[in-house]
Amino acid sequence: MGTRLTIRPPSDFVLRRDVCSYGYFLLAPNFWDPDRQSLTRIFDLDVGAAAVTLTQAPVKRGGPIAARADRALSRAEQGELRRQVGRMLRLDEDPAAFHRVDPRWKRSGRGRLFRSPTFFEDVVKTVTSCNVTWPGTMRMNRRLCEMINPAFPSPEQLARKRPAWLRSRCGVGYRDVRLVELGRLFASGEVEAAWFEDPDRSDEEVDTALRALPGVGPYASANIMQLLGRCSRIAMDTEAVRHGREALGMTGSTRAVERALQAHYEPFGEHKFRSYWFEMWTRYEEGRGPAWTWEPETTGATLTLPDKA
DNA sequence: GGTAGACCTGGACGC
DNA sequence: GCGTCCAGGTCTACC
Which of A60, A104, A139, A223 is most buried (CB neighbours < 10 A)? Predict the structure, then answer.
């Protein structure tokens, strides 16, 4: 008999909207079921792994989230699960400040961006999204879970792998050495999540430290920063440039469009990334329907491939 | 500080 | 079925 928990979210929270708000909800071990409107994934807890399904019924703002685990969880594990779910769903964030700066999203209530239960998983997911098309990112994350840990590889597990093994089994290509090194840095304590999650650090400090990590450049750093709740920068990739050209009518070289994007989103200050992201996400949904209706392996695999939508 | 080229993988395409 | 080209961000060497 598994454990059932009730999680009380903020009064504005909507599970399907706030889970299906960023591409990581399509990456293993996360599984969004568009028919059941539920999120299932395996969590690493104190005693071991547990598959947990999250639902919110009826779908209304602030309704309780039901968490159903496939096994009995101890008190300590229940607390750990609440903490990890809280991070994924950003239950401690209040989008009101964002809506004051960019009122376009007040009506829909958009503001939260889905993320991983741990900082390490967010870093690895970001590195697997660099220099590869979205289906490739989906494949890498699926294989990492299939070959190493169904709840997602821990730093220790990645640190123990040989790069060549990682490359051949998980299809990570030249990222092999970088991923093993990331695992080693986190496992050894040389890199601590708490340091990056400290709100007293400046964006510049965090950016500099992130760029010192293997596989993390300007794009990856900006993306990890938004995953940390620091949205003052645009993660500048080809999708951003495409958005600038196609949605905002920007012209000129890539560099020129990047500069124009920076200037365009400057008025949104600390919320630049959210303003940019929800514009782009809305365009994705215009072609594919609401994200909570996407089948992960079909519609969900077409992200960044707008001509295939 | 700016830039060219290498790094991998898988899909598209032509033959 | 095979070869070629392309997309994607980071890293290093070089100017």
Answer: A223
